[in-house]
Every structure is written in structure tokens, then in C-alpha cells.
Amino acid sequence: MRANHRIDGAWLGSVDIAINKAWTARAFDASTEDLARVTQSGEPGFGLNTTNDAKVVIFGGGIPIREDGIVIGAVGASGGSVDQDVIVARRAGGPQRSGLTIRLGSPRGCGWSEPVFVIRPQAMPRHSIS
Q: Is the pTM of this model over 0.85?
């Protein structure tokens, strides 16, 4: 993990969830929101959340960060509703292009506070999935 931030008063349980959302987004180079769709009962990814010592989170709030089309890290947010977490993660991730800037804390205009975590590739090596 490269950086983390917890807003005063944020639920302690949100910390691990946000970290695991970022980890999941980086582990599979996909948003946790997208993974939620393919991991439902009857879908090909069903049961994915039971792997990796139960670190895999399959609801929105984790997004991979791309630079020039390559995944270079991930952001995870937790503490609000799933829809709020998705908004915070997208805003915290900044533009998906060169010159990426990562802002920690409550993004402007959200109206709530949540922890936001960033995982960079140095913290998690790339693995191929067979």
C-alpha cells in the first residue's frame, strides 16, 4: 500500500473493506463494481470472493488506476452506500491518463467522509490468472 487515509469518525470496519476493495481491483485489474456482476450465482465468476483468504470484495468501491492504458495501482473506498463508495473511488482515482494525481480524503462535493486507500504496483506484484 502506498497511502491510506481514514477520516475521523469513520467506521473501523470500513478500513479493511476499503483496503480489500483496492487490493481486489488491482488483483484482477477490474473494478469491484464490474466483478459484482460476474460473481453472482449462476455467473462464471461465482465464488471468486471466497478465494485469496477472503480478501476479494465483490461490491462497488474499488477501481484500478490506469496510466496510458496500463494498470498502475488501485483505489478503494468504504463507509458510505455502495453507490457513494463508487463515486468516492472514481473521484479519488483522478483522471485515468498520464499525469495521474491521487487525492486522499473526502472528494469535493460528496458530502460525507470515508477512508480512501491507494495500492500501487510495488505493493502487489502482477500475477497471471489461468
A: no
Tell me the pLDDT tens digit for each residue of 44-59.
999 999 999 989 999 9
| Among the four given CATH numbers 3.40.640.10, 3.20.20.70, 3.30.450.150, 3.40.50.300, the one describing domain 3-123 | 3.30.450.150
What's the angle, vertex CA 117, arms to CA 120 and CA 126, rounded to 5? 30
- Domain boundary assignment for the chain: 3-123
Contact (Cβ atoms closer than 8 angstroms) between residue 100 and residue 65? yes
Q: Give the strand order in the sheet containing 70-77.
A: 3-5, 116-119, 70-77, 62-67
Q: Any alpha helices (H) in 29-103, and if so which ranges?
A: 32-38, 82-93
